[in-house]
Amino acid sequence: MEFEKITERASLYDNLEKMPLREILEDINAEDQKVAWAVRDTIPQIERLVGLVVPKMRNGGRLFYIGAGTSGRLGVLDASEIPPTFGIAPGHVIGIIAGGDAALRNAVENAEDDIQQGWKDLLKYNINTHDTVIGIAASGTTPYVIAALKEAREKGIFTACICSNPNSPMAAESDIPIEMVVGPEFITGSSRMKSGTGQKMILNMISTSIMIELGRIKGNKMINMQLTNQKLVERGTRLIMEETGFPHDEAEKWLLRYGSVKKALEIIKQES
What we know:
The protein has 272 residues and is α/β, with parallel strands linked by helices. The chain contains ten helices and five strands. The protein has helices spanning 21-40, 43-58, 69-86, 117-123, 143-154, 169-172, 194-213, 230-244, 248-258, 261-271, and strands at residues 63-67, 93-97, 132-136, 158-163, 176-179. It has a five-stranded parallel β-sheet with strand order 2-1-3-4-5, with helices on both faces. The longest helix is centred in the N-terminal third of the chain and has 20 residues, at 21-40. The protein is globular, with a radius of gyration of 21 Å.
């Protein structure tokens, strides 16, 4: 099938600047409702990906996200949320964005067009065949990402991608391409909208299911979360209260002594 940039198709809406505000909002919402269905169609590929990544991570492998612009920012966001949510060390899931950390807040000129830098950025982490690299690009044509995936694959590193155009050059360099076809954007070509929303949903699915498979959740509870603020201390205290029947003050004391719900419950079980 010939490659076509669906992400560049003309919007289904026109004369946006003349629309009533309510109509703008309703039409954006109508388009957003298509995203969940497009993501649902990719579940078989996500399942395959997670099924292969989990054993690699159990054996010390890491998960890398690499992207540019909105896609890169979403990868960095997902990676940054893993340690506080699941209590896993920051180096296990790593987000890389073209242009470096400066690109998180401001566009870095020509960063996404550099075909050498993506692989160089991965090499900074001593990437190896135990690891997995997921490229993220709505268009599937970002040179920074494609070149990084190509080099990784040639080195025997497992690769995947998340994109919004089928049969893209990026998919060709991926062992498992996740092609989420959301159609044209509300504003023509503005892939920060539906494509970005879908990328965030897929990243949530990938990282959350991996962490569940790695035993970082008990029942439906975040027993490994980092106690970085009072809200999380209170949440952890309630979890210990539910599991043990301890009063609030005693549960909080155990939590603060051992630093995590999981560790506290393990010690309580040993001493009971």
